[in-house]
Design a protein that fits this description.
By secondary structure, the protein is an alpha+beta fold. It has four helices and six strands.
Amino acid sequence: MISFRQNGDFSKLNSYLERIKQAVKLSDLDRFGREGVNALRSATPVDSGLTASSWEYNIERNNSGAVIQFYNTNVNQGVNIAIILQYGHSTKNGGWVEGRDYINPAIQPVFDKLAEEAWKEVTRV
């Protein structure tokens, strides 16, 4: 027979998780949003410059936390140009234009910095 006994409650765990949730303030998220947009703008391949200048971000907060969404508003004939630059696309005559991974290398340092600052805030006593 196996038995398990537990005394106390989860108040310390709940407190810790609440600190994690609140570690990155809205103003910090706004700063990281601006940094992300600047990184994406500078990394976007430039022809006319329209795609590079069309990066934006949005912050959504809910009960479980917050999300920064980066998006590009340059759409031509229903096609998001930033996406086809990233992943490639076919041409009218059946050819293929290879994509170039510029989004991930541009945004990763911003995510790393955000995670590092959040971890410092959470582990600060």
